Amino acid sequence: MTTPPDNREDRRATADQIGPQSSGQTGRQTQAIHGGEQPDPVSGASAPSLTMSSAYIAHQVEGFSAHNMSDDPNSHFYARWGNPNVAMLEAKIAGMEGSEACLCFASGMAAATGIFLTFLSAGDHCLISDVCYAGVAELARETLPRFGIEVSLVDLSDLDAVDAALRPNTKLIHAESPCNPILRLSDLSALAMRIHASGGLLSCDATFASPIGQDSRALGVDLVLHSITKYIGGHGDAMGGAVAGSKALIERMRMEATIHHGGVLSPFNAWLIARGAATLPLRMEAHQRGAMAVAQALEAHPAVTKVLYPGLASHPQHALAHTQMCNFSGMIAFQVSDAARGQAVAERMIERLSIIHYAVSLGHHRSLIFWMPTDALMDSSFHLQGRQLEAYRAFAGDGIFRLSVGLEDPEDLIADLEHALA
Ligand SMILES: *Cc1c(COP(=O)(O)O)cnc(C)c1O
């Protein structure tokens, strides 16, 4: 197995991300556990308390609009503006990303919408990965143009295509690396260089990589998006989204995208997701180890015609994965001979799998698998043609099984898959 190099810059968090008690800088595992947390000053509780209140006592006569909002992060007013549990999770994710700030949302989709509607206006142009989370692709194609935002869906792994698509009014490139569902990477430093040259922003959906798998900020990403429903929460029991970035960009988003658009994360979900996030660095190591074992077993299986995993030498962008990622994560895509066979295997999986759940979503401790036939996905979401369709098919063929390798014993997962592939 090729272990990814530790590509990260010094990501040790600063004291203000980890709570007032600590001084100096701390490592990633410490950050995941203590980031944003402090013992309860009233009760002395060591674990975070849950604060569900929607309104907070004002100690002076204040303005009613969010434009009068206090700069003190410990001063709360109304739960759509901020909440102690959400603030705790935001500090934790910012610490793990090595960024100044973070803003949480009710879902990954709310976070994506927040980026587009905060940083793009009528007359602006954006480049969005032509293969990305289906909901984001549909939002970009169907919704943004209704507001006068010009959208080009481009294969961002093809830098010539990117250069050809950039316009004087391009304000944002939205990448996803590795992308859902085909595990194709984008060269984030190269994209950052291009968009920064004209003063625009680079956002990247790093849900598949998690904050542990990729040092997005060091690669030049201005806005790092996560569906925290996935790896960061990690247990499949709470939805949420997050965007990490500089204080200036995140504060702009806080006013627009949460206070005005309103898709805020609930305190209970923040509390649950923060508990999951504490073990993220450990889980990512185990996801990578399990995924490598499963990917190698699939690659050796006679019924499997192609396996896509960034950690495998056979991945078309393995060299880029090696320089850009610091953990290859737990996501695998694989093909069988054709669409008819894929359909038959999917039906057998529903009947025969006893450990892996045949279900959407990913990044949980439970393994999940789902069949994604190329033609259906093109009709519903991606609508690719010509060279872009060929580029998709070079990865996905007639269709792929998207497998999120959980934390079970890898040999049990392999036996379960073999039972369905037989
Ligand atoms: C799931 C997912 C999303 C959307 O997140 P939700 O929390 O389901 O709204 C966005 N991007 C990627 C890569 C995802 O996997």
Task: Summarize the structure in words.
The protein has helices at residues 15-18, 28-34, 84-97, 108-119, 134-143, 159-165, 188-197, 210-213, 247-260, 267-277, 280-299, 318-324, 339-352, 374-382, 386-396, 410-421; strands at residues 101-105, 125-129, 150-154, 170-176, 201-205, 223-227, 241-245, 306-308, 331-335, 357-358, 368-373, 399-404. Residues 12-16 and 19-23 have low confidence and may be disordered. Helix 11 packs parallel to helix 16 (410-421) and helix 13 (339-352) packs across helix 16. It folds into two domains: 15-277, Aspartate Aminotransferase, domain 2 (3-Layer(aba) Sandwich); 281-421, Aspartate Aminotransferase, domain 1 (Alpha-Beta Complex), CATH 3.90.1150. The chain starts with 14 loop residues before the first helix and ends with a helix. The strands form two sheets. The chain has a seven-stranded mixed β-sheet, sandwiched between helices. Strand 4 (170-176), helix 7 and strand 5 (201-205) form a beta-alpha-beta unit. By secondary structure, it is an alpha/beta fold. Pyridoxal-5'-phosphate (PLP) binds at residues 107-109, 133, 135-136, 176, 180, 205, 207-208, 227, 229-230, 239, 241, 362.
